[in-house]
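Hello forum,

I keep getting stuck at the same step: I have a sequence, I want structure tokens, and every attempt I make locally crashes halfway through. Rather than fight my setup again tonight, could one of you with a working pipeline run this one for me? It's a single chain of 337 residues.
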Amino acid sequence: MSQDAYERAGVSQSNADASVAALVAHLSRIETGRASRVVPLPGHYASVLRIDDHTGVAFGTDGVGTKMVVAEQLGRYETIGIDCVAMNVNDLVCVGAEPIALVDFILCREADPEVCGAIGQGLRRGAELSGIEIPGGEIAQVGDVVNGLELAGSAIGLVSLHAIVDGERIAPGDAIIGLPSSGLHSNGYTLARRALDGVPLGVDPDERLGRPLGDVLLEPTEIYVLAVLELLAFPDVDVRGLAHITGDGLNNLLRLGSGVGYEIDDPLAVPPVFDLIAERGGVVVDEMHEVFNMGCGFCVIVAEDDLEPALEVLRGSYPESKRIGTVTDRRGVVERR
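Reply #2:
Ran it on my machine without issues. Output:
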């Protein structure tokens, strides 16, 4: 595969960006006849609406994408619900919000009680890991539209308006802390499946993974919420930015702040599954970093003086957390050393 391997596999990021712009061109002109409740957070991970002068409600929506194809191939649905919860709540906490609830949406050709029960197991576990409730959801049987399954959700959380983490106070010299991922999480599976096509899911190719490939690909997305909320509640740390590292990799940092850049000079270890994808698919290093998290699932940006106390808190949940880089004055640039 060449530099545009992801697009050749069927996903065009440029088309996605243009599609979002086409939607927003209309949504931004909505007139309700009253003052907008939207808190301006352009490009951020979650949206926030003012409820009153003190409280905001944060919300977002996301799904598990083509990771569901792997679950279908293996007939294993018990963990995919964790991914659905994780992709939503990890975004909410990026604005400093405490997630409180999620509703799920299952799109399928025909409802299967056994499959839905297994999905429910994962949703329950994900809710427990993030401290949220799932009061309801929807199952849509649309055989004329889909052949398989899709699982998505929409989540809400609460945040004090004065405590929103919007990245605006990020400054050159701030420290970037990386929290390890559990694997691919729920991004890049179209490229991963194309690259690994022909490799049996029940084996450990080259004996480099330590377990069957299918187990690695179905490893649930890590939920960072409780650790990040603990850090936000810690009085001696100035948290200036929070980033969920999903599609676009560490370029997600560019959603934060303004007038700054990011230098990654001591990255977290890269799990072997990423090397396997690159080798089998002929995917170049730059594109791997543009599509996958490459071992770093979440970033916390703190003032330099607060690095050590922040690490002390985060390492209680993630012992391998460490400083991976520094904020620079090179606006809009993410550099990897």
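The chain is about 30% helix and 25% strand. If your local run keeps crashing, start a new thread with the error log.
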